[in-house]
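To assess whether ligand presence alters the predicted conformation, the chain was also submitted together with zinc ion. Input:
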Amino acid sequence: MTEFHVRTKKKIERRDITDLVVAAARALGVSSGAILVSVPHTTAAITVGENYDPDVTTDLERAWAKWVPDVPFDHEEGNSAAHFLSEAIGTSRLVPVDDGEPKLGRWQGIFLVELDGPRERTIEVTALTGSENGKRKTGNE
Ligand code: ZN
């Protein structure tokens, strides 16, 4: 496993981290298999999605802000909306790796989703590589 850090700038921010994940996959030496991209946070998420038109990013940031249900929240820290979005969107994505590169579609990128920023965030990349006998093992053994 390896990790890197990103400082977010907005309350809700969809940040393209594809290049950083590619570099992490290379550092791990994954040739084929998959990587798990995850955040050890309760108010952030990871997605795979459209990375070409920047309007998609601002559209999704506005959509996520409106997605929070209108229910009373008791959590005293006052950030249950961010906890809801983190659990609804998900804190990890599994990405296939082929020939040492994350296998993404032409219009796909990997995104950190900040939901309670701005903050310093940690992104963890764990290798799940195929072995000779077909069993799977994690890359941090
Ligand atoms: Zn909280």
